[in-house]
Each structure stands twice: as C-alpha cells, then as structure tokens.
Amino acid sequence: PRCLHTRVGDKRHYRRMLIRKHAEMRNSDGFVESKHCSNKNDKSSDTWQTCKRRDALAGGTMLVVCTSGRYSRNSRYPCSPWKHDGTAVASELATEWSVTDGESELLIRNDGTINLSGPYPNEWKQNLSLKLPDQALVGPARGFTGPPGALDGVALSVEWPGGIQLHVWRASTMHSGGRLEDKFSTWAYGIDQGYLLEFVLQKESLRKQSCVCGAEIALELCDGIHWFGGAHMLRQLWPLERAQWEIGPLYPFDHGPNGLGSVVGCHWVSSTGSVVMVDPKTPLLHFGLNSPTTSQNGRSPRYFGVGVQHLAQPILPLIDPAPGTHVFKHGGDGFMHIQARSSWEDRNVLHPWQSFDFAEIPSDEICSSRTGDRPGDCAVLRLALAAKGDARNATVTALRSLRCPGQPPLSILLERSIWTTWATSHADVTQSEVLALSRNILKYEFRPGVLEIDDRWQARYGDLKFDHEKFPDPKQMVKDLHDLGFLVTLWVMPFFQEGSEAYREASERGYLVKGGTPPTAMQEISVGGVGQRLGSTVKVLVDEYDWPPGHWEGGGRGGKLRSGQFRWWGTQPVGALDLTNNTAIDWFVARLKRFQDNFGIDGFKFDAGEPCFLPKGAVTSRPLHYPGEYTQLWVKQVASQFPVSEVRSAYSTTEYSGLIRMGDRDTVWGLDNGLQSLIPALLTSSILGYPFCLPDMIGGNAYWGQYPDTELMVRWAQVSVMMPAVQWSIPPWDISDIALKACLAAERAREEVLLPRLPMLARMASQTLVPICRPLWWLDPTDEETFAIDDQFLIGDDVVVAPSAFLHKC
Question: Which residues are designated catalytic?
C-alpha cells in the first residue's frame, strides 16, 4: 500500500505529502514537490504525478494514511485526501490509518483492529479491537483529519457505516485548552505522549445484535505479559490475568455479582508498559478481564446479595486453571473488555442499578465532537492509551492523572494502631467492653492509638445517640479513653433506621433517597437460580425475625420493605441519605460535628457508601449521572470534612487524605478473601492511587463461627504491621501466650523498620501518589521474575517485606 504522510516541511511550516518510493525536488517558489511513481522502474512513465501544498501544519507529529488504490493519471493532486477548505478525507479504499505522538504509534485498521507500539526496544505491540456491529461491515470505513484549529484538535476520525465513529487525539495536545480539556483532562492529564480515544456507537446499530451491547474496546492479553490495577475483588489476584473477571458493572460494590469490591479504579498497566485508562464518568461502564468462555446460564445469573446471602454465592473471580502456560486456551477468553453499554439489561448479571434511571449527559452537550447526536442516541466510550516501556513508568504516568491529597493522614493514624470492637463484639458492643479492651491493650504492653467503637453503639441507626442501656455514661467513657492516650472514633453510615428520629426528620425534609414500589417477599425469593432463591429466602427470614437471636432490642422487622427501603447486612429496615442534595449533606455533616463536639469524639469510621445500597427505583433530588458518583459524594462531601477518618469505598477519590480500608476479610488463610489476599489488595491499592491503605483487622472478622488459631493470628500480624496503617480487633492475649509475644514482636518491628521511613514516604505519597508499599518490580521493572510475586512488597526502595502467609510454612 502507498502511505501518505503529513509533517512539517521546512521552517515556513509548509505541509507536504510524501508517498513511498518517491523523488523530491524543490521548485523556484520554494515549494516542496513530490513525484509519485506507480512503476519504480519507469521514471519516464506518465504515471508520475506531482503535488504540492502550502497549508500550515502545527506541531511536528505525523499522520499516516495507507491506501490500496491507484492514483489518477491526470490529476495534479492524485486522489488528494485534502479538501479545498483545508480539512482532510481519506479515500473509501483506505485500509488503515496511523497517528504518532512522540515516538509511539497508533495504527487503526478499517476492520476495527488497533495496534499500539512505543519506541522502546523489545517492547511488545499491544493489540486492541473495536467491537463493531454488523452494520459497520456493510461498506468501507473513511478517515478524516483536520487542520490546526479544527474542532477539538482531533488528529483522526474514522467513520463506519451506521454512524459508528472513532476519534483520536494526541495526548501531547491536551494542554491546549478547549473542549478537549473537558473530555479528558480530569482523568488522563498525566499522559504526556499517547492517545485519547472516543468511540461513538449509535444505539440504533445495536438492534438485533446478540454479541454487541454498546461501545466496546477489547484489548488482547498475551502469555508472559502481566496486568495490574482495576479494583479490589473478593478473591484478590495479582497479577490480574490470573483471574477470570466476569464482565459486569465497574462501580463500587459490597461483594458485587462478579466479586467486585468497594475500591474501584479506572486504569490498568502492563508489565511491558502499556497504560489503559477509561473515563470514570462513563455511564453504564462495564469491565471484564479474561472472562470465562462459558457464560452464566440466564436461569442462574450472578447476583448482588448482602449479609447471609453471601453464603449462597461463589467466591469470585474464578482462578484461571493454568496460569502462565497458555492460560487463555484453557480458561478465560484472553481479552480485557471495556464497555459503555446502551442499557443495564443483562440476563447473566442481576444488580440494583437495573431498576434505576440515571441522568443523561446534559442535553446541551453533544456526545461526540463530530456528530450532532444527542446522548440518548449513542453510547460513548473514552479511553486513554500510552506505551511507556515498563510497568513503573506506566504506573507513574497513570498516577500523574489523578488528584493528590496534598497532605497525608494525621500522623497518629499511621504511627499508632487502630483497635476496633467489631470482631469480638459485633453489634453487641457495650461501654464496659470498650473500657475493658482499652485497659487490656495497655496491660499487655501495646501502645495506645485509636479506639474505634463499631456497630450498634446507637439505639437506632442514624440518630447519633448512644444507647443508654449499653452506654450509660458515654462522656465519661470518652474522657477515660482520652486519659489513657487513645483517640476515640465511632462507626457511622449513610443509612437511617425506620422509627428513628433522624429517619422521620430526613423523610419530612426530603433528605432520603426515594424509591419505587419495593418487591414483595415472594418476588424476592422467586428471582434467579437456586442459590439466589435460597439466599434471598434466608435473608428475608433473618431480617424479619432478627435471627440468630441475641442482639439488643431494635433488630428485625425488616422482612417486608417499604418504598425507599432496601436490604443491607443488618436486619432493620433503613433508608439512604440523598447525597445529591447539598442541603441534606450539610444537615448530615452538621449533626456529626455537633455530636462530635458534645462528646469529645475525635473522628469517624465511614462505612458503606457504595451505590449498591439504594432502594429499587431509586430517585434522588438530582439524578446521578453514573453509580460511582454516589461514592464520590460520600467520600468528598462527607468523610473529607473530618481529619480523623477512614472509608471503605473509593471511586476516583484519590484526593481524600484519610485511610482507605480494605473490605471485610474472612478468618481463613487463602486468597478467597483471607490472609493471602492482603498483599495483593495492598499492591492493587498502590497502583490505583490509594497509598494510605488500611488492611482489615488482624485475624479477620470472625464471621460464621470462624476464629483464628495461634499460627493464623501471628502470620496475619506479620503481614499487616509493615503496611501504612494497622488495625486490631481480636485480642492476641485471647488466643495464646505465643500469639501475644509474637504479635508484640511484630509491633516492635514496625516501630523499628517502618516508622522511621514513614513520614518521608507519606509526604511523597500525598503529593505524587507514588506508593509507600510497592510491588517488587518497582526496583527493576525489567526483571520478569518479579511480575508475579504476590506475597512480598517493598517499603520505599530499600526494604523488602517477605512474610509467610501460608499454613505450616516457615
């Protein structure tokens, strides 16, 4: 094929078109002339053509258009791709287009396949593809480019039949301002050289399409190339391609249908330096990686469940059966799928958002730079791609695009341990138990830190009033804890229990999320496969009768839901705070601060915040544009108001300066939400821009009758104490004398090794998001032996932490 190149010609910025196998000459006017020959052996042939252009071209980057057609013998501008108005159009016979930025290149073919390559030696070329509906294949694609000052500065636009378009910008032009800033700068600003893609697909073209559900870009996975980033998962695997991550929504979940957790990111990096980022504001964003080749039976779909329903759910994602050796032939499909779907409809995955109406992009914004289609007519997927040579450069590039906290959490949150009442007391915590725990912490020679009073300190959720039967003198309790050297924090969430004063007040003022008609109990237990029906049946009974018994008065009566209510891990009927209502946020925060002042509370543990905890048919005062916006409001508008705080949910909230907690861990050894999942989750947090990671409590949550023995407790402590923050709940002295001595030794090792380095690392992390705890490949990102190490990590660049997280293994 012949290739047409455009580049800066000389110091006067003349544009010239160069065709391979060409001879150049400069005429008396100073123009560049290129003679084109279809027969290189016949220099006298009349097929020689001459063209010259004098159009200015800004910048020194290159656009290449490859065609397979012949040129007109009589045309002065042979099949010129340039219109007289200065815009460019490629022939319908074009088969591929190439855009370069710096020394990297993006090659796009008319069948929707894409190649990304960089300048680095031995760098793997990354293959991607657009998932095109049948309508796109009925005719050839056409490519367009524009002169300086063209709308949005687009470098290349490719159109397929049916109104399907791909627009490409060079990342190096992003800082020039204009609407391009609005589209990409808030989430891809750190890419200095690379490509910004906008894939626009008309929803009309999806009719009668069984395999295309929206705008999708699929990235090919290859043996020997590893991927990092994404999200916290119920079964946390490092690197990511070890998992069969089933396609589902990419927003925070508490135990999502495909195993997705509460901390969700929107970028991925590879061991060869590829960077893939997606716009977190994408409506109906879905993701999957190496998904199983056999999908769920529509009669037994994956589903979202809470509390006791988890017992009927599988631990996901599945582990690929043959990691490292042709994995994709035996297990997953071998692709990373990123989708902007046209609807939530999915017979294989059930979740709450399928009953919600989310807001469209404001109607005065068109969904594409080159079309006048309104947002309801098309699905739009925006990606940023870059080739950075190695995983460390790729990670730093991605982190540069994220907002920084500016300052680390308060030093005591990092230097001293957090002690929580949850694993030992669960919802039955009392004042006497809190004071006994604090005294034992000091008795057994642990240092005082933060004492967090967890669930059910309130008489009714949301009232922010101590249960006076359980806490007869809370002010004196807080004073006593302060005198012992502890900070005191309380567990809160954005839920209000029916029958509470706060529920009544919030409802009257319009501060609760409204809902449609809730499902009846019979409807709930009739949905899904056998596992979901069994789990739903048990959950309805537990919520109604507060089983198992033993909780304090106030549980139960949640079997039958009313409009605006939803199921959660507790048994009481609750409503959710409407975080789209600024007045409701001000009211909620003011109540917390007033309560804080009255009792001397130092801060709060902000639980929940995932958008899965909303009622069926949720209606907010201002429509959410995408589910993750609810999490962003919870973290940015509520939790960020309190210097001493922690959250468990995160979605593009890297500017938060508190602690980001891992989800609840089971008291087991394995990767299936146990001890061995801690380091992979820590490293994933680091890649996603959350350096101040708080591991879950040492020994796990002691759910379902689980309780750690000496070995599990000690190993858990040894893994946790070298992380940025540490959290205890199960007292080591209740396990054994050996456990107590070993856990104290682990705490002392933290003080000797980590704490002297922590202030500098924390300060750097708060300003750059460069992680405190780093994967081993950070030291040498070309060392292939380090890519799959999931049980060790670095502290800065000079300490390797290599604990044992396996049963009976020294």
Answer: 607, 610, 672
